[in-house]
């Protein structure tokens, strides 16, 4: 492993292909025999620091159409939190089902699960049938894993019945020194970014692109008013940038003055601090408060000069969904994913049906959408939102931060990279965007 790292740090990428892939590597895992460790504990009190382990694991067999990547950096997503607290279900069920698909897929059905759905690194080895990538290529990976043996996935790979999220519904994820990916997950690493910056957008940037910009999502257009929940967070911070770049007007909903300032720094002018303004959409755990929906809608119109949102960018779920359906304009779109506050959504259907609104479900992105989202990062039109970076051994703390919403933007994790700030190969391009790249740092 040290020889590989030395070659990468010396930028001798052509030499990487001549180096042996190690038999073992370090990775962050959860264990199948610990899936009941949090039974009886409230969700918020479940602690990823207790369930995520830094283990030494054997390197998986490399199959056709696959690549092994030396991971320089990764990042935390909410699916890592779900995996680590075994909610809403244990991910070992996903691995068992995948393992039944084929002899090769059996590799994934293990008593440990290597987590992580982001990476930036260097290709070490490719399997048979891989022609677009070679050892030494600097890459990032999106997290869509598909088999494409069904006709359903050929119009939109997210419709493939064997569509999975790598590192969540498959094994050998990115929070590790090595990762196993399908070669069609790979995309070029933006040259002006460090390893940790390049690793951080993958899942959330692609998800926000499909959800907001793509025809498969809300199909945002110039002039739209877009309500964005959690606008300074891992997902919302990219939605805010897409809205601003696309000629829309974001209305950013946040939960603190610090988060409000981040949104203004990105260029958003209309910001609602929901805590400061005291919105309480639920009277009790079973009863919503329509008066609060109306108060919230009036506040949006006050900011926009009378406009209701054309699009509501939804991801908190249960806590906010009733309000989201209410405030969307007549004929508007509520586009939803994730449901981090709960999956069982409740809303008053009169405001949907009689006002001809649409609810659109959106999940990650297909390869084209992920590629376009990464291309915008590469062009410096959208920027990473890394606020803090941890070493691999402290992944549990990083996941705990995200679980407790004690973070801004994205939380990065260094894998093989020995320190932050490495991996930039186009410093001139970086200098043009440095302020925007560092916008979330230390916040």
For this entry, give a set of tags.
443 residues, alpha/beta, 6-stranded parallel β-sheet, globular
Count of helix runs: 14
The separation of the N and C termini measures 34 Å
The major sheet is characterized as: 7 strands, mixed
User: Rough shape?
Assistant: globular
Helix content: 25-40%
Could you tell me the strand content as a percent range?
15-25%
What's the Cα radius of gyration? 21 Å
Mean of residue pLDDT values: 96
Number of E strands: 20
Which regions are unreliable across 5 or more consecutive residues at pLDDT < 50? none
Category from helices, strands and their pairing: alpha/beta
Give an overview of the whole structure.
The chain is α/β, with parallel strands linked by helices. Helices cover 29% and strands 21% of the residues. The protein has 14 helices and 20 strands. The strands form five sheets. Strands 3, 5, 6, 9, 10, 19 and 20 form a seven-stranded mixed beta sheet that branches.
Give a brief description.
The protein contains 14 helices and 20 strands.
Strand and helix layout:
Blueprint lengths: L1 H8 L14 E8 L16 H4 L1 E6 L7 E10 L2 H8 L6 H8 L12 E3 L4 E8 L11 E4 L2 E2 L18 E2 L12 E5 L3 E3 L6 H5 L2 H12 L11 E5 L6 H10 L3 E6 L2 H10 L3 E4 L8 E3 L2 E2 L1 H15 L6 E4 L3 H10 L5 E4 L12 H5 L4 E4 L5 H12 L7 E6 L3 H9 L6 E5 L12 H11 L6
Parallel strand pairs: 11-12, 11-16, 12-13, 16-17, 17-18, 19-20
Antiparallel strand pairs: 1-2, 1-4, 3-5, 3-9, 3-20, 5-6, 6-10, 7-8, 14-15
Helix pairs in contact: 3-13, 6-7, 6-12, 9-10
